[in-house]
């Protein structure tokens, strides 16, 4: 389920939020605001109407799967919450230490990659939760981000 989330996250970010297609104008404009104000973490958390709509669509899809639908929806939702929290941390002033726990090291790497997407090259780093997704699709950053 995590792999499905990461691929979905990558495809939406790259092909909808960075699209020039007029059909995606509203989503693209919201995302542009997010890019122009990367330290304004409120752009990182979707509104309740978006979250509940997304959850409703996911529920309609997953409940088509006999027996396992609720379980799949639970895992999908957990991935969504993890994404929202990680994205918030990436844009907040929370200091992450890459020398501490595995989780903090992972979040530090995610934060570096995402900020690099904002400030260095918007045509790379679409896979927010996983650098490996960018490697798979050929949009990973080649060099490590400079440390301050």
From TrEMBL:
| Protein origin, superkingdom | Eukaryota
Classification via Pfam families: FA_hydroxylase
Secretion signal, residue range per the UniProt entry: none
Per UniProt, residues of the Fatty acid hydroxylase domain are 4-139
The alphabetized UniProt keywords are: Membrane, Transmembrane, Transmembrane helix
Please give a single GO biological process term from the UniProt record: lipid biosynthetic process
Q: Which residues cross the membrane?
A: 40-65
Q: Does the keyword Membrane apply?
A: yes
In its UniProt record, a GO molecular function of this protein is: iron ion binding
Q: What is the name listed in the Swiss-Prot or TrEMBL entry for this protein?
A: Fatty acid hydroxylase domain-containing protein
């Amino acid at each position: 389920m995590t792999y499905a989330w990461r691929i979905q996250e990558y495809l939406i970010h790259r092909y909808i939020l960075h699209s020039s297609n007029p059909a995606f104008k509203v989503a693209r404009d919201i995302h542009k605001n997010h890019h122009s104000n990367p330290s304004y973490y409120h752009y990182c958390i979707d509104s309740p109407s978006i979250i509940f709509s997304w959850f409703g669509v996911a529920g309609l899809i997953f409940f088509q799967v006999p027996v396992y639908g609720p379980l799949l929806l639970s895992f999908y939702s957990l991935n969504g919450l993890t994404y929202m929290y990680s994205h918030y941390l990436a844009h907040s002033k929370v200091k992450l230490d890459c020398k501490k726990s595995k989780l903090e090291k992972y979040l530090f790497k995610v934060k570096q990659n995402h900020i690099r997407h904002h400030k260095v090259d918007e045509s790379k780093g679409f896979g927010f939760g996983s650098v490996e997704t960018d490697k798979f699709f050929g949009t990973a950053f080649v060099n490590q981000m400079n440390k301050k």
